[in-house]
Amino acid sequence: MWQTRAYGFKENTPIFGEKNIETMVKWVKVFETPDVIKAELLKNELLTHEVMAVVLNRKDRNYLWGWCEIRVPEHQENIAKVIIDIFNQNDTETKPIL
Protein backbone atom coordinates (compact mmCIF):
# COMPACT_ATOMS: atom_id res chain seq x y z
CA MET A 1 0.00 0.00 0.00
CA TRP A 2 2.79 2.46 0.87
CA GLN A 3 4.65 1.83 -2.35
CA THR A 4 1.70 2.95 -4.46
CA ARG A 5 1.45 6.19 -2.49
CA ALA A 6 5.17 6.85 -2.08
CA TYR A 7 5.87 6.99 -5.81
CA GLY A 8 4.53 9.17 -8.58
CA PHE A 9 3.06 8.17 -11.90
CA LYS A 10 6.41 7.31 -13.49
CA GLU A 11 8.06 4.14 -12.35
CA ASN A 12 10.27 4.55 -9.26
CA THR A 13 10.01 8.36 -9.23
CA PRO A 14 9.44 9.84 -5.75
CA ILE A 15 6.57 12.33 -5.45
CA PHE A 16 8.85 14.92 -3.86
CA GLY A 17 11.33 14.91 -6.74
CA GLU A 18 14.99 14.43 -5.89
CA LYS A 19 14.56 15.16 -2.18
CA ASN A 20 13.77 12.46 0.33
CA ILE A 21 13.31 12.22 4.09
CA GLU A 22 17.05 12.48 4.82
CA THR A 23 17.36 15.85 3.04
CA MET A 24 14.26 17.49 4.49
CA VAL A 25 14.77 20.79 6.32
CA LYS A 26 14.87 21.13 10.10
CA TRP A 27 12.65 23.96 11.37
CA VAL A 28 13.77 26.07 14.33
CA LYS A 29 11.84 28.44 16.59
CA VAL A 30 12.94 32.05 16.17
CA PHE A 31 10.14 33.96 17.91
CA GLU A 32 7.19 33.42 20.23
CA THR A 33 4.39 35.71 21.31
CA PRO A 34 0.97 35.42 22.96
CA ASP A 35 -0.49 37.66 20.22
CA VAL A 36 -1.74 35.70 17.19
CA ILE A 37 -2.10 38.81 15.03
CA LYS A 38 1.49 39.91 15.67
CA ALA A 39 2.70 36.40 14.81
CA GLU A 40 0.83 36.45 11.50
CA LEU A 41 2.12 39.94 10.66
CA LEU A 42 5.67 38.85 11.39
CA LYS A 43 5.24 35.72 9.29
CA ASN A 44 4.06 37.87 6.36
CA GLU A 45 7.05 40.16 6.84
CA LEU A 46 9.39 37.18 6.68
CA LEU A 47 7.64 35.86 3.57
CA THR A 48 8.05 39.22 1.81
CA HIS A 49 11.81 38.89 2.38
CA GLU A 50 11.71 35.37 0.88
CA VAL A 51 12.22 33.59 4.20
CA MET A 52 10.01 30.54 4.58
CA ALA A 53 8.07 30.82 7.84
CA VAL A 54 5.20 29.07 9.60
CA VAL A 55 3.16 29.95 12.67
CA LEU A 56 2.46 27.25 15.22
CA ASN A 57 -0.57 28.34 17.22
CA ARG A 58 -0.22 26.73 20.63
CA LYS A 59 -2.90 28.82 22.30
CA ASP A 60 -5.75 27.12 24.11
CA ARG A 61 -8.96 28.24 22.42
CA ASN A 62 -11.09 27.78 25.52
CA TYR A 63 -9.00 29.69 28.03
CA LEU A 64 -7.04 31.94 25.62
CA TRP A 65 -3.63 31.32 27.14
CA GLY A 66 -0.52 29.99 25.46
CA TRP A 67 1.94 31.06 22.81
CA CYS A 68 2.30 31.29 19.06
CA GLU A 69 5.66 30.22 17.68
CA ILE A 70 7.26 31.30 14.43
CA ARG A 71 9.50 28.68 12.89
CA VAL A 72 11.87 28.99 9.94
CA PRO A 73 14.23 26.54 8.22
CA GLU A 74 17.54 26.13 9.98
CA HIS A 75 19.55 27.59 7.10
CA GLN A 76 17.47 30.83 7.18
CA GLU A 77 17.59 31.34 10.95
CA ASN A 78 20.14 34.18 10.98
CA ILE A 79 18.41 36.35 8.39
CA ALA A 80 15.05 35.72 10.08
CA LYS A 81 16.41 36.98 13.41
CA VAL A 82 17.67 40.17 11.77
CA ILE A 83 14.26 40.78 10.15
CA ILE A 84 12.51 40.09 13.47
CA ASP A 85 14.75 42.59 15.28
CA ILE A 86 13.97 45.27 12.71
CA PHE A 87 10.26 44.43 12.88
CA ASN A 88 10.24 44.69 16.69
CA GLN A 89 12.17 47.95 16.60
CA ASN A 90 9.64 49.46 14.18
CA ASP A 91 6.79 48.04 16.26
CA THR A 92 7.97 49.76 19.45
CA GLU A 93 8.50 53.05 17.61
CA THR A 94 4.95 53.17 16.26
CA LYS A 95 3.06 52.21 19.45
CA PRO A 96 0.78 54.98 20.66
CA ILE A 97 1.54 56.49 24.04
CA LEU A 98 -1.49 56.21 26.31
Description of the structure:
The protein has a 3-stranded antiparallel sheet, with helices on one face. It has one domain: 2-Layer Sandwich (Alpha-Beta Plaits). Residues 1-10 have low confidence and may be disordered. The longest helix has 17 residues, at 77-93. Helix content is 36%, strand content 21%. With 98 residues, the chain is α+β, with helices and mostly antiparallel strands.
Notable characteristics:
about 100 residues; alpha+beta; Alpha-Beta Plaits; 3-stranded antiparallel beta sheet; globular; disordered N terminus
Task: Compile the SSE list and pairings.
Blueprint: H1 2-6, E1 27-33, H2 36-48, E2 54-59, E3 66-73, H3 77-93
User: Could you name the CATH topology?
Assistant: Alpha-Beta Plaits
Measured on Cα atoms, how large is the radius of gyration?
18 Å
Regarding CATH, which class?
Alpha Beta
> How many H/I helical runs?
3
Q: Care to count the β-strands?
A: 3
How much helix is in the residues? 25-40%
List the uncertain runs: 1-10
Q: CATH homologous superfamily - what is it?
A: Hypothetical protein rpa1041
Strands of the largest sheet, in order across it?
A: 1-3-2
Query: What's the overall average pLDDT, rounded?
Result: 77
The CATH architecture is 2-Layer Sandwich
- The general outline is globular
Q: Please give the alpha-carbon distance between the first and last residues.
A: 62 Å
Number of domains as seen in the coordinates: 1
Largest sheet, described in full?
Answer: 3 strands, antiparallel
- Helix and strand sequence: HEHEEH
